[in-house]
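pasting for ref
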Amino acid sequence: MSEQELKEQLGDELCEFCPWRKGEIDHTFDSLCEGSYCDDAFDNFLDENEGYFDDEEYHCSECKYYWCYPHTTQMYCYKLGKRITARKKSCKHYQPNS
């Protein structure tokens, strides 16, 4: 998966890692970033999630902490306490569903 595809898949979740939105970049209260800092947000996302990746290749849907919303295809992780997106590698909290 290319970086651009991953950015598109993350969508609005990438905004949580945006330096503009976090207040690291000065702006007025009524201004919009208009996607100017998405590359920085993506870099921050990769930096902050680096520890969740390991060498094993298990799919999150096989984990005991995984749950999928019944009316959508959104994935949720109880251990992380948030919605998740598909990953090439499982996170450090992965435990097989028994």
